[in-house]
């Protein structure tokens, strides 16, 4: 199949051609189009949830196809395609993991672990959800002609940014691994990591922990920053684009169940992480540095999951 011809780089400047009111309206539309697939997963009934998700994805697909034929929509072509890819990932993520966990692994999520009821099952489910995000995005990108540069995937990590990210990751891991040595640590009030967790158990869980934290981080960096950051920047500028993607990233965590202080978690942790990751992605011109940094923040979360089933 021949790829639909799209501009390989962002050379045009639609933002310069859009009036302030038009940009404000486009901002609202972008938020709604990105948040709608996320909101669909909050519907309790699975059949209704999947139906709504499919309808949203179908509407975005229709818009994407129309943008290739209608001159008035042509400047929004890449933006509409990445919104469709985002919605498609949400539909697949609402359907496939539940089936695999129940009928393939024979496991069910627990109150403390939304992935599975064993360590091995948790790792499998985490890798499955990562694949569900990455594969559709790359397939859509290939079919419609989006290059890897626009997803921040073509640049290999190197230099001072990589050293900084790895050093930060190691420092965070060491701090978290030694939390059991500091009973009553304030961080446990925001993200408890399980009762009676010892440093020895942390070391034993480390291989699974690293796989889960880094795979989730790479998935979310591609899903929220890789897809949207350059497209939003094209219309709104770097600052607004970064805030916009961080807002979507934050809303995606509204249904979090592992923090007893959800508002603090969202405002003081998730939103700043989104802003920092967006800045680091632009600064390093690649997805790998922010993914490593993001993985450092995820260590505590996944340690809690694993500790609950260990």
Describe this structure in words.
With 310 residues, the chain is mainly alpha-helical. It has one domain (18-309). The chain is 71% helix and 0% strand. Helix 5 packs parallel to helix 8, helix 8 (199-236) crosses helix 10 (262-284) and helix 10 (262-284) packs antiparallel against helix 11 (288-309).
Number of domains: 1
**Shape designation:** globular
The portion of residues assigned to helices is over 70%
User: Span between N and C termini?
Assistant: 47 Å
Any low-confidence stretches, pLDDT <50, length ≥5? 1-12
Strand tally: 0
Counting helices, strands and paired strands, the structural category is mainly alpha
Into which percentage range does the β-strand content fall? under 5%
Oligomer: single chain
Order of helices and strands: HHHHHHHHHHH
Rounded to an integer in angstroms, the radius of gyration calculated over CA atoms is 20 Å
**Number of helical segments?**
11
- Characterize the biggest β-sheet: none
Please tell me the overall pLDDT.
Answer: 87
Features:
single chain; 310 residues; mainly alpha; 0% strand; disordered N terminus
Write the SSE topology:
Elements: H1 14-17, H2 20-40, H3 46-67, H4 77-104, H5 119-144, H6 159-177, H7 187-190, H8 199-236, H9 238-251, H10 262-284, H11 288-309
Helix pairs in contact: 2-3, 2-4, 3-4, 4-5, 4-8, 5-8, 6-11, 8-9, 8-10, 8-11, 9-10, 10-11
